[in-house]
Design brief:
Number of helices: 4
Strand order of the largest sheet: 4-3-2-5-6-7
Strand content: 25-35%
Largest sheet: 6 strands, mixed
Bound molecules: inosinic acid, magnesium ion
Shape: globular
Order of helices and strands: EHEHEHEEHEEEE
Helix content: 10-25%
Structural class: alpha/beta
Radius of gyration: 16 Å
Length: 175
């Protein structure tokens, strides 16, 4: 099906916002280190750009999760497809996500990671669709609150396409 992409947030707007979040994190954790945890694949672009703008020591790790069978939608239970390489014990963990939608995946994930004994844990997301929230999730750093539209770019995909767009766009389908 043919689709068009309408720009919602320009590259300049996104870059500026990531710079601001990077400065904020550097201030909040001054004198300490942060450990960024990326949820693949969507979070990768944002995390790398964010890490470049943090001025305190940073370490990075990656994980990949997928939904668990049929009743996942209601339970939010996720399966770890690729686990983190490093322990979280004693670290200032910041989970970096592309978007918080229903919040199901993240609330489950955050609870699971909390059991690994981090010194602190926060959540940072580039985009938030508050209207779509089903499970309450505390977001500590938010780039942009956006309306309930399907977006792509900056790591977000539609059918694995458009992750590489340097801006955030809304997918529009031809009638
Ligand atoms: P949830 O918060 O558990 O519903 O899951 C959020 C996940 O759904 C994100 O990490 C994305 O992978 C995906 N997602 C949600 N909204 C969008 C969107 O607008 N575009 C692309 N992916 C999305
Ligand atoms: Mg994601």
């Amino acid at each position: 099906m043919a689709e068009k992409i309408r720009v919602l947030l320009t590259e300049e707007e996104v870059d500026k916002k990531i710079q601001e979040i990077g400065e904020q994190i550097s201030r909040d954790y001054a004198g300490e280190q942060v450990h960024l945890v990326c949820v693949l694949r969507g979070g990768a672009f944002f995390m790398c750009e964010l890490a470049k703008r943090i001025t305190i020591p940073v370490s990075l790790d990656f994980m990949s999760v997928s939904s668990y069978g049929g009743d996942t939608k209601s339970s939010g239970v996720v399966k770890i497809v690729k686990d983190l390489d490093d322990s979280l014990a004693g670290k200032n963990v910041i989970v970096v996500e592309d978007i918080v939608d229903s919040g199901r995946t993240l609330s489950y994930l955050l609870e699971m990671l909390q059991d690994r004994g981090p010194k602190s844990m926060r959540l940072c997301t580039l985009l938030d669709k508050p209207e779509r929230r089903v499970v309450d999730v505390k977001v500590d750093y938010t780039g942009f609150k956006i309306p309930d539209e399907f977006v792509v770019g900056y790591g977000l995909d539609y059918d694995q396409k458009y992750r590489n767009l340097p801006y955030i766009g809304v997918v529009e389908f031809d009638a």
